[in-house]
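Predict the 3D structure for this chain.
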Amino acid sequence: MIDRTNMSPVRNTMAVSFPAPPRDGISIHQSLAGAVRWWTRPDVRVAIAGQSSPLSATETWLLDYLVRNSAVRMSDVASFQNVDRSTVTAQISRLEERGLVERHHDTVDRRAVLVSATEAGEHALEIQASTAARLYHRILEAWPAADREHLVMLLERFVGDLDAVGSTTVGRS
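Done. Predicted structure below.
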């Protein structure tokens, strides 16, 4: 804000106050940030991919979606990711250049473009999933079996709740 009489900046003296976040929310946020940071490190991505050109996190879940859903309209892929079609087009183009997906016209509606995972895409995802599973097992093998099972149960529940919430409540307190 500018004081128009002498054209000098005026400090806003109103302090904005936010309620303190719940301690469990802080701990969960910090733990997830640490897990994401670890999982997205280049050395970890290469180790999990089992190849020199690993899939990014976005490419991984996009390819997983295509493997699980067979041939999908580009508009449905954009909706799944909650992004516009131009973003999906660029992502699919990168995967297509690597031979992991293919595009083709819908036989019912020739205007619609469908995208599906190729055998190479399915294979890359399978390698990544099995390598990651072995890595996570190795990291957690010292834990008692009951703790590992409890972690799996809680993570599945948490991810289910995240999916149920979606983006509609993000940013709301």
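The chain has seven helices and five strands.
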